[in-house]
């Protein structure tokens, strides 16, 4: 694996106005990415979108200056979902797309996600090349004074994306008569998501649509679904939809306010597409975190579940390499490659709604596709260092794996987006998996002080 200093599993991410998420580094990243994608004599251009974080006002002009200094024209679209940036980068024939977002993190964090001209996230090799340029300086490669780029704001970008998303919903169906609670996490989709559902006929009860720069993902969105679930029950809605801050992931609540995770959503779409001969590659791609119940259910249908390491980019890489059109993560990243080049929470939600409308059954029946095995996931936060390197932690992990041998599985991984170790276990015995997770988490906490 290529060692990268700036880039994690989902672009560059960190605390705003602290390295690497500073205006200075953003400027350098813009210059470095501009240099890498500056090819040929055509007029180069880059599209920049962002979510609703306060720090976007700092990072957007810094990146813009970096690209302009390399002779690239900049198209600024303002708050838009990550998948919209990917789609627009490709449809507008841009050389590069940039999304400023830290996804589901709180407002204090921000991130830089880069997309190539094909709308796909960059490979490890390209990211390493950009890091090399950042580290080694590129002042000798700056554009001549007469070759500087220009910046402009794109009008009606929301309408373009709204119509694109609506076209993915079957034309023979309508959401008329459906009451839907929609939680936009005070994030990037706060305008476009309600417009999409309303345009397809739904009665929309929007929450999380009043961003102020500070409240993105705060007690709302796909990582804090309590308000969404209770609002479904309060208004007797047919369904609840929770997006995250940049709207590339989605979770659903049925009409009882019961949460439905990404594994169930993948199973639902996979089964529906399989029945209609739309599922490519004979299966689904998920990560090591997906529930074993999903794998067993797909096997019962003669379908395979391929697992990758955590990160939707790795799911997508496997999908492209092996010709599959459905993949995702338990957290709600659902990639439907017939429509998009990255996870799109809105489009995934529309696929679920299509099945509910077509079957004329309540979400509680439609969305409960398989019985999940008991699974426990806990996070241990740390300040610095290598939390998994100490001997007591290694011994605790070995003991846990021994106890779960043939009756469950253990997955331990440092997060690629924040200083957290995620400890997950699943198996037939809920008491056992709870015990082993507690033991491992306790060992890690003691090791990090």
Account of the 3D structure:
- This protein is an alpha/beta fold.
- The chain folds into four domains: 149 residues, 3-Layer(aba) Sandwich (Alpha-D-Glucose-1,6-Bisphosphate, Chain A, domain 3), CATH 3.40.120; 100 residues, 3-Layer(aba) Sandwich (Alpha-D-Glucose-1,6-Bisphosphate, Chain A, domain 3), CATH 3.40.120; 85 residues, Alpha-D-Glucose-1,6-Bisphosphate, subunit A, domain 3 (Alpha-D-Glucose-1,6-Bisphosphate, Chain A, domain 3, 3-Layer(aba) Sandwich), CATH 3.40.120; 74 residues, TATA-Binding Protein (2-Layer Sandwich), CATH 3.30.310.
- 37% of the residues lie in helices and 21% in strands.
- The chain contains 14 helices and 19 strands.
- The strands form five sheets. It has a seven-stranded mixed beta sheet, sandwiched between helices. Strands 9-8-10-11-12 form a five-stranded mixed beta sheet, with helices on both faces. The protein has a three-stranded antiparallel beta sheet with strand order 17-19-18, covered by helices on one side.
- A hairpin with a 5-residue loop joins β15 and β16.
- The longest helix has 19 residues.
- The chain is globular, with a radius of gyration of 22 Å.
